[in-house]
Each structure stands twice: as structure tokens, then as C-alpha cells.
Amino acid sequence: MYSQQDLDDAVAAGAITKGSADALRAYVANARSAAIVDEEQFRLILGFNDIFVTIATVILFVAVSWIGQSIGDTLGLTGGAGNPSPIAGLALAATAWGLATYFTAKKRMALPSIVLLGGFVGGVFVAVGATLAMIVDVEAIESPLVGGLLVSIAFAAAAVAAWFHWKAFRVPVTVAAGAVAVSGIIGGLIAAGLSSAGLAGEAMNNAMLLVVLLLGLAVFAYAMRWDASDPDRITRRSDVAFWLHLAAAVMIVHPVFTLLGLRDGDASMGEGFIAIALYVALGFVALAIDRRAMLVSALAYVLWALSDLFERFGAVELNVALTALVIGSALLLLSAFWAQARANVVAMLPASVVSHLPSLGSPVAVSPEPA
After folding, report:
1. Does the chain have fewer CB atoms within 10 Å around its N or its C terminus?
2. According to DSSP H, which parts of 230-318 are helical?
3. SS3 (DSSP) at 137
4. Which of 208, 209, 212, 187 is closest to 258 using CA atoms?
5. pLDDT tens digits, 148-197
6. What is the pTM of this model?
7. What is the DSSP string of 183-204?
8. Contact 339/35 with Cβ under 8 angstroms?
9. Side-chain half-sphere of 261: how many Cα atoms within 13 Å?
10. Phi, psi angle pair for 263, to nearest 5°
């Protein structure tokens, strides 16, 4: 199995011509009776060796973090009993970067590269956060204002780490990691400002959910920029957009359903119908942008809502089974007729909007990579 990026690399290396690569893409699209753009391809696992290396990497991460934490505890380099040590974060980040120079830069393994990115960015975040916890007084950290500022600084370090990782290795998920880190910076600063203004409790929680929603919409807009630069989804930019959409979906769906009271454990029939209506609306958005991430992110909420509806209608014993039957059948039906459904949805949109959406299968020129 070969990815779009493998074909691009083969063309760049002179192994095959660009015409041959395009012909292969066209053949695969015709064989599957669907345009490549609708396949929403991204590299994750190309063989069992990816899983093998990933498992070994996770084991090594646990080992070096444990050893680093032990050394930090021995030297007293922690912010208090039970707190992480900067040495553990630094050991994790250094190990992840060193492994990435081989498994990412040379072997170009997809799943291990994602794990190594998480280890590097997460290690930097922990190292900086733990260092700040050592420097700042414990009582000051408990202050929402100071805590928000410290979290923002730690996220800023993670964003810088993601930027360096992107420049060195160009792993598609790195851009999404950086976007989430930048969102963390903004969220931390806003939380600090709101807490200093006296906001607390339920009002603070709702305000931060609204902030996360707005940040999610910003990440979604950024993802659309990457999608617009590769409307036929034949370059690595499509992979970058995929991970950005996945991050944006979580940041959008969770606040929306929570702010509407759909996670309080005592949903009314009206709230259940609202959840289903929202899922249908998300379905139209997913079809328009040709991304399934939002449907997956909201799936747990709509499953719960539909199950609750069946229970209130009297199907207590079969409510879970009926919910799974309805949702599973609907998603499979949508998958089978995705291209036709998307064509109908796109046809209803104005031309100014369609011009920024992924193509319906006809070739479109690829614009320069977004900054």
C-alpha cells in the first residue's frame, strides 16, 4: 500500500514521472468508483512494523520518563511531592527527538512519527511546566491568575517545540499540535484575565467553554486554508488539514453539546432531539468540506441522546441496541453514497463558498503551501 506522499517522493526522486503518478491516481479512483479527494487518505500504518516500533517507543518513553523522575526526586528537582520533575520532561523530549532523526527523517514511518511528536512536544511542555512550578511559590500557583499565566507559558514552549519539529521533520500532525498549543496559550491568558476580574464557578466554566469553541472555529478556518491549497488532496497538505480538522472538531463539538446542557446526565426529550438535529447539521458541514472528523467527534453525544430517546419511548431493554442499529446503519449508508450526497450539498452552496472547498473530482491547480 502506497500513500500519496510516497508517490510524490517517487516523482521527486525521479523513480517515476509525474504523468505516471497521476495516471496511477486516476486508475485507483476509477477502480474504487470514487474520486481520490473523497477517500480522505492519510498515512497512519503501512505495515505491522509501524505497530512494532510504536510499542517499543512507548515502552522506552515510560522507561526514560521514570528514570528521569527518579533522578529528579533524588536531587530534589521537583515542585513538590508527587509533582513531575523537569528532568523527566527533558529526558522524554530528548529521546523523542533522537528517535525521530531515524524513524521519521529516514524511515518516514507514520504512526511512530506521530508518537514521537507527542513525546517531544509533551516532554517540552512538562519540562517547562515543572520548572515553573519549582520557581514560583506554591501558594501563588494556586491563584487562578498565576496558574493561567504559567499554563500559557508552558503552552508557548510547546508551540515553539512544535514549530522546530515541523521545520525539521514535516510530520503533518505537527501543525495541529502547534495549533492546539497556541490555543492553549490564548485560553490560559483569557482564563487568567477572567479570574482576575472575579469570574469563578459555573460562570467561569461556561466562559471557558465559549472560548474553546471560538478557538476551535479559528482552528477550523486554518484547516480550511490548508484544504483550499490542495483541493484534489494529492499532497501532504491534505494530511495536515486532516489533523487540523480533527483537532477543531473536538474543540467545537464538546463545548457546543456541553453549553446546551447535553452532558448533565438528565437529558429531556427536547435536548435529545436537539442533539440529533445538531448531528444532522454537522453532517451537512462534513459533506460540504468533505471531512468526516466532526461526525466522529460528535458520535458519542448523539449515541447517548438517541439512546435516551429510545429509553423514554419505552424501549429500555433494547435502547442501546436500537441506538447502535440506527446510527450504524445511517453512517454506513452515508459512506456508501458519500460522493452523491456531497455533490447535492455542494450544489446548494454559493459559488463563492464552493471555490474554497475540496473539488468534486475534477483536477484543480494546487496553490502554494499556507504559512
Report:
1. C
2. 236-259, 269-289, 293-297, 299-312
3. coil
4. 209
5. 888 999 999 999 999 999 999 999 999 999 999 999 999 999 998 888 88
6. 0.81
7. HHHHHHHHHHHHHHTT--HHHH
8. yes
9. 9
10. -130, 20
